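> tool_call: predict_assembly(chains=two)
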Amino acid sequence: MSLVLQGIVTGILTGGVYALMAAGLTLIFGVMDIINIAQGAFVILGAYLSYWLSVHLHIDLFLGLFITIPVMFVLGVILEWLLIRPLKRDRTQLSILVTYALAIIIEGLLYFFFSADNVKLFAWYTTQSIPVGPFYLPLIYLLAFALSVVLLAALYVLLYRTKFGRSVRATTQNRAAALLIGIDVERVAALTFGVGVALTAAGGMAYGATTPFTPNSHYDLISRLLVIIIFAGMGSLGGALIASVGMLVIENVTSLLWSPVWASTVFYVLLVIILLVRPQGLFGKFATRNQ
Amino acid sequence: MTGQYSKRFYRVFSFFGILACLAMTLAACSTGGGSSSSGPITIGISLSTSGDFSADGKAFTQGYQLWAKDINAKGGLLGRQVKLVFLNDASSPQQVTTNYQTLITQDKVDLLFGPFSTLLTKPASVIANRYGYALVEGAGGGPSVFTQGLHNVFDVSLPVANNLNSFANYIAAMPAATRPKSAAYATEDDPFTQPQVDSARAILEAAGVTTAYYKVYPAETTDFTPIAAGMVNAKAQVVVTGTLLPDVSAFIQAFHQQHYNPEAFIATAGPDQGTQFLQSIGGAATAEGIMVPNGWYPDLNAPGNAQMVSEYIAQYGGTKSDISSDVPEAYSVGQVIAQAVTQNNSLDQTKLIATLHSGTFQSVQGPVKFDSTGQNTQAQAYLFQWQNSQLIPVFPANVATAPVEFPKANWPA
């Protein structure tokens, strides 16, 4: 029983980390109708930025986010202006190609600057844990989960309590109508892309502090992130958190009670069943847009 | 109308069919080794500079390049300089197939060196065999490479299936009173790791060490938490993991966090990666007592080993403990193929394959003699352990520089 409980708890905590990475992806899709295949590469770039600050400037991983989040935000805005905005037709399809190319470029640059060596983020809290009943909860997972909750809450406030958030939601609901009522849709898109990419700085730090990574780690990540947002419903922020936690809990419990080989299979079977019943995912666009 | 299209289609089909046949005939005529008899000898290699094996690909590149530099400094091979032609396979079995096809039919290389990993060596050896090339390699030691019925593949390193046997034999030989009673096993579903773990498990079970946990996990796993939790929960005295660097690092972090201190902990690969391993686990203090099997160590008394070690340090920096075991595996490939080519005084692939099957060769990993399947019968399995920031041989006794640290030290606070 304690093993199942442990699987559920670690699934929830790990799910928080994945939610942080998936939130940006689903936000970008919701507003811009583009699928950012480079999201995984941005996560790994964020992890390397934290690594560089930690190793060379000895800046704590969490404090380093005050540098990496703004840097990634600016990078996102610039890349949107350079690569996404020129796509006038077939945006959704073309964005897949463009962002895939971007992922490969980021990967290549990371190989050039950091080599193919496996690296990992370390701080005093990455190996510490807190005793809870019969097992220990890793401190880094608790901190990463807390970070995830704080950032997702901040994102919620940004979207639902600010003028910019209203613009974003208006653009999400109907881009043409938003344009008609005077919203600068292109500016909203650029800032949204920036916010989506900025979130990967935090996601990357949390990922790098729990898992060794190399420049090519983004391939495994993006496939999981896409599954999360399809499960959640493309464009749903709250759904991304629930889907992340759901996926990790199902995989963890299956792995612990049965076999790691079946962990993903069980989740994917469940995903297919849910998509058959609700093709738009658990919290698909329509549900989100009525929030 | 339909008839006209059919005729046109037939003509076009026939034309391209004839072209394809011509191309295949030309390709067949031009292969089997040898481009021109002057100029540098070209050696085709597919390595992983991206993907899961990119870290090993980097170390293998270093090993091949060190060998090429050495042989060129000595006047080359058959009086000609050697030139390495590298292609990136991105750790993909599909890409490695394309790469060797390209190296043979387009680049028309004179010789082939193997890729990294059993997973990639299997398809590479099939392509090399199709064109009559010998594929000498240093990291494709999984049993499945040698059960394909091929006679052109040669592994200069230790046969993988026996890698962990030195560790299992050490535990089995312990007095019954102190011998561990239980073991936990977790391995990737990889042809390199799983056979080793299964072989060690059979030896340990025969010695009365019960299996408290045994799980196989997909190689693409990114979250190792539940597997680590399963091993922690099993509370076994011995942990045997069929891993590469990323997963063993994740297991170590999880064990550390869960305050789980097994008495013995061995991984098929990862702890042999020198500095990279230490960087990925947070330093040498955490590495204390962790074991890894291998067929080479920096102080091994083997031809050219001391020179290779000093050259590596001069070129890439660090200390001898920082040298990945991939480097000598790659270097040995060059040494063995050079001896066979020199013995034949020819680059003819048929002669090369025959000589490799019959001869005995020397390498930085020790003597090499291939059996009929291409496995090195002379390779010896050593057991290594991290002690005081150094990875040192601890078993068997004739090469041990210190006794095995058992039980393993607890994780640092």
